[in-house]
Amino acid sequence: MSSPYSGATPVGSPQGQDPYGQGNYAVGPDEAYGEHSGNLGTPSTTEGRPDVEGTSVGQLFGELAKDLSTLMRQEVALAKAEVQAEAKKAGKGAGMMAAAAVAGFLTVLFLSNALWWALENVMDAGLAALIVAALWAIVGAVAFSMGKKKLQQVNPKPERTVDTLSDVPSALKPN
């Protein structure tokens, strides 16, 4: 029962049990994969260089494909992390702009009330509403300028990913 699939458990069956009564699925990694235990690395010489004398071209290409695959996965993960960081900055800037919009709405509301009260009463109530509206206008202006500054700091290009991707062609060239 030594096959690459002998460690698998069919869906719906308890761990280590064969649903057909044929045997036990619980197998160690050495039993399941034999000599291919997942360590395909090339041995190194004492100088630290790869010892490729006994290695076939197919194995070297296999290692190259594995290394390129790992490199691409790491680059995608790096790009994802950078984009998420920039999206957070953009979210904060958008939040400030939303606050500016709310403050602008309240400014219009209070200015409208102030004008109405000023025309109706000509005295204290209208003046109080005008003062409140002026305070909201100041809050709106401050929130807008802060939001604008945050949005200008957003860099949509993942800089570190671009830098490391530019190093890939030189890494593939022979020394």
Automatic annotation (TrEMBL):
Matching InterPro entries: Phage_holin_3_6 (IPR009937)
Keyword tRNA processing assigned: no
Bilayer-spanning residue ranges: 98-119, 125-147
Extent of Polar residues compositional bias: 1-16
UniProt keyword list: Membrane, Transmembrane, Transmembrane helix
Disordered: region residues: 1-55, 155-175
Protein name stated in the entry: Putative Holin-X, holin superfamily III
Species of origin: Geodermatophilus obscurus
